[in-house]
TrEMBL record:
Name by which UniProt lists this protein: SGNH/GDSL hydrolase family protein
Superkingdom field: Bacteria
Alphabetical UniProt keywords: Hydrolase, Membrane, Transmembrane, Transmembrane helix
One example GO MF annotation: phosphatidylcholine lysophospholipase activity
Membrane-spanning ranges: 33-50
Coiled-coil regions listed: none
Annotated spans, Disordered: 1-24, 312-342
Compositional bias segments (type: Basic and acidic residues): 8-21
Length: 530
């Protein structure tokens, strides 16, 4: 019999497919949870071991504000207390003036801490003409039987974040009073809104980074990176050693209505509020000083038009042109001007020529016409102030000079709004306002601070620092601070105080030399710049 052929179906038997199905049905071996924990924890464990090893080996370290001396009985200020805020090479970190005071405050002693940046530190002077030192001298003359400790915690190139941290530290050391002078460095101080060392606008993120910088691993990585970048930079030609002003300024055109400007002011308000709150919780009174800057004798560094673009005035016999902008700055408007921009420049140039000829009223008329087209260039406001001062319109001149300062796109001087923030604390418990700005206005021609009391943009001369000290002490007396019998204190005239003070002509000459060096560089001249 023949075999019946099997009918083929459309599906043929596939041994390979059967084996694949078997594999698919076979359950995979599960990776133990411990494996993942080990994989995640190993890098952390290694990092922890490295951190411990670096600490045991004495590598790096923190930067406390105060250090105990060898006896353990006295604290001294740490010159490198600000190092943790900077990313620059060690030699470039501004240092704190060294002072010491007893760990336990003696009976009959008044302890005052002064907080701030380079003005508090006393730039360009050394110890004697600084306002904390002069506060101590004035108080000692008024109360010779009492002992005063006035500790200067000012350090150059820091903004309110560093001042806040220093303030919290000093509150741990039994102060009777804290004096605060800060605000000029909110844009270009370390961590500032326009600084080369900015860490962003989030205060929480800044705090987190500052904590990380205390880790030895972070410090090691920072040093390695710094060594690499230093070698790379060292292969390129430079224009000489930079000043701090050159080093710190990144965003060199910051319009008054910009987000960056608002970020700086918001940060200033928040840090000042935290500092006052910390002192209030401790029951420590605070004297907040309003800020003073050179309005009348210093033209604005950078003028911005209504679009936030920098104006290059050409020619410019009155104001030195700023240096080239860094990457990220607003564009410069010198070519391709619109008709209205060209008209503004022509009017300002004509006004400048008329001012050179002493025809002040005509110059003011042309400046009015320019301002009607564009009200934002700081140069227009400054030239208006000069004309109004010459014409005896002092109130108008004061407003114009202050407006020019506020509109200056290169923000090395605090704007008026910062003083408004400071004055808003008037009447608060444990807070007094020493109106330094008003004291300088009262002592200046036409009520506008200038070269009589200020050396450059923000730093007073020796007599200006003495005026700050006098203003602060006067506010202490007015509000009966420090548990002293102010009614029995003798009146110390300015001439008597100056004759008895430790300020010498040599101190002033040294300061003049320091300022001459500073003013030979950007932004005061067209000298070397990054």
């Amino acid at each position: 019999m023949g075999r019946r052929k099997e009918r083929r179906t459309g599906t043929e038997h596939d041994p390979g497919r059967d084996s694949a199905d078997v594999r698919a049905q076979t359950p995979r071996a599960r990776v133990p949870l411990g494996f993942y924990l080990f994989a995640l924890s190993t890098p952390l464990l290694l990092a922890l071991l490295l951190e411990v090893g670096l600490r045991l080996g004495g590598y790096g370290g923190g930067h406390p504000l105060f250090l105990r001396d060898e006896t353990g009985l006295r604290y001294r200020t740490n010159p490198r207390a600000a190092a943790g805020y900077f990313t620059a090479k060690d030699a470039e970190v501004p240092t704190l003036y060294q002072q010491d005071f007893p760990v336990t405050k003696p009976s009959g002693t008044t302890r005052i801490f002064c907080l701030g940046a380079s003005t508090t530190a006393g730039f360009p002077y050394q110890e004697s003409p600084t306002f904390p030192f002069l506060i101590e001298q004035r108080l000692q003359m008024m109360f010779p039987e009492h002992r005063f400790e006035v500790i200067n915690l000012g350090v150059a190139a820091v903004m309110s974040r560093t001042v806040l941290d220093f303030g919290r530290s000093c509150l741990e050391h039994d102060p009777d009073l804290v004096v605060v002078y800060m605000g000029h460095n909110e844009f270009y101080g370390v961590l500032g809104a326009g600084s080369t060392m900015r860490l962003g606008s989030s205060r929480a993120a800044v705090r987190a980074v500052l904590v990380l910088r205390q880790l030895r691993i972070f410090q090691l990585g920072q040093r390695v990176l710094g060594a690499f970048t230093s070698r790379k930079a060292g292969s390129e030609p430079t224009g000489g050693a930079e000043t701090l002003m050159e080093t710190m300024a990144a965003n060199r055109t910051i319009p008054i209505d910009s987000k960056l400007f608002q970020s700086a002011q918001t940060t200033f308000e928040a840090n000042l509020a935290d500092l006052v709150a910390a002192a209030t919780r401790r029951g420590v009174p605070v004297v907040l000083c309003t800020l003073v800057s050179n309005e009348r004798s210093l033209p604005p560094f950078v003028s911005l038009d209504r679009e936030g673009m920098r104006i290059d005035w050409n020619p410019d016999p009155v104001e030195s042109a700023p240096s080239p902008a860094r990457t990220g700055d607003a564009s410069s408007r010198s070519q391709g001007r619109s008709d209205s921009d060209a008209r503004v420049c022509d009017l300002v140039q004509r006004a400048t020529n008329e001012m050179d000829e002493g025809v002040w009223q005509n110059a003011l008329r042309d400046l009015d016409a320019a301002q009607a087209i564009d009200s934002l260039p700081a140069r227009i406001a400054y030239l208006r102030g000069r004309c109004e001062a010459e014409l005896g319109q002092n109130a108008e001149a004061r407003r114009a000079f202050a407006r020019a300062r506020d509109l200056d796109g290169l923000r090395f001087r605090a704007p008026s709004s910062f003083n408004q923030v400071i004055r808003s604390y008037r009447g608060r418990d444990h807070v007094e306002i020493a109106d330094v700005e008003q004291a300088f206005r009262d002592a200046s021609p036409i009520g506008s601070p200038g070269k009589e009391l200020l050396l450059e943009h923000v730093h007073p001369n020796a007599r200006g620092y003495a005026l700050i000290a006098k203003t602060v002490v006067a506010q202490m007396a007015k509000t009966d601070l420090l548990d002293l019998d102010w009614s029995k204190a003798p009146t110390i005239s300015d001439s008597l105080f100056w004759a008895r003070s430790a300020v010498t002509p040599l101190d002033e000459r040294i300061g003049d030399f320091q300022v001459a060096v500073l003013k030979s560089r950007w932004p005061f001249t067209d000298g070397p710049t990054p």
